[in-house]
Amino acid sequence: MIIKYFNLQYFYNLIYRLITSPWYLEVPVWFPLVWLLVIIALWIAIVAIALKIYRQRKEESADLEFLLKNKSAEPVEKNDRWEKVLKYLESENPAEWKLAIIEADTMLDDLVKSLKPVGENLGERLKSIEPSDFLTIQEAWDAHKVRNRIAHESDFQLSRHETSRVIGLFRQVFEEFKYI
C-alpha cells in the first residue's frame, strides 16, 4: 500500500481535541486506581528482582573469594610425560624437538584410546571420533600430521618455531580434556 498523501492537519486536529476536550470526565473513577496499582506492582517486582540479583552476586563473590583463598593451598598435579616433552622442547638439539613431538603424539594416542574409539592406529581412531565430542580435533590432526612427517620423511627438518607451534596444538588438546 502506497501512501499518496499525508494529512498533517488531521493529526494536529486529533491532538488538539485530546488536549481540549474533557475526555477525563468520561473515564470511570476506578480507572486511575487500576493504573496506580499496576505501577505499584511493577515497582515492587523491580525491587524484588534487584534484591534477588544483589543477593546472588554477593553469594557468588563470597564463593569466588573462598575459591581464590583455597586455590593456592591445593597442590598442583604434574604430568611427568608432559614435563618431559617441555624439557625436550627447551633443548637446542633439533633431534630432541622431534622427540618432543613424538612423545606428545604418544600422549595424544593414549588420550584418544581412553575415549574408546574404533581403529588400529591414531589416525583411524581420530577419524572415528565425533567432532562434537572432541572440540580440538583439528588441532590434534594438525599435530599428528607433523608427527607422521617426522616418522616417515627422513630428511624432514623442524625449526624451533614450528616445534613450539605443534607443541601448542598438543597443549590445546590436552587442556580440553584436562590431561595436563
Report on the structure:
The protein is mainly α. It is 71% helix and 0% strand. The protein has helices at residues 8-20, 30-71, 80-90, 94-114, 122-128, 137-152, 160-176. The radius of gyration is 34 Å and the shape is elongated. The model has no long low-confidence stretch (mean pLDDT 87).
Give structural attributes:
180 residues; mainly alpha; 7 helices; 71% helix; elongated
Brief overview:
The protein is mostly helical and 180 residues long.
Q: How helix-rich are the residues, as a percent range?
A: over 70%
Largest sheet: none
Calculate the mean pLDDT score and round it: 87
Computed CA radius of gyration, to the nearest angstrom: 34 Å
Q: Which strand-content bin applies to the residues?
A: under 5%
- Terminal CA distance reads 66 Å
For the secondary structure, the number of strands is: 0
Instruction: Give the helix/strand class.
Output: mainly alpha
Order of helices and strands: HHHHHHH
Shape: elongated
- Number of helical segments with 4 or more residues: 7
Low-confidence region ranges? none
Secondary-structure blueprint of this entry?
Layout: H1 8-20, H2 30-71, H3 80-90, H4 94-114, H5 122-128, H6 137-152, H7 160-176
Helix pairs in contact: 3-4, 4-6, 4-7, 6-7
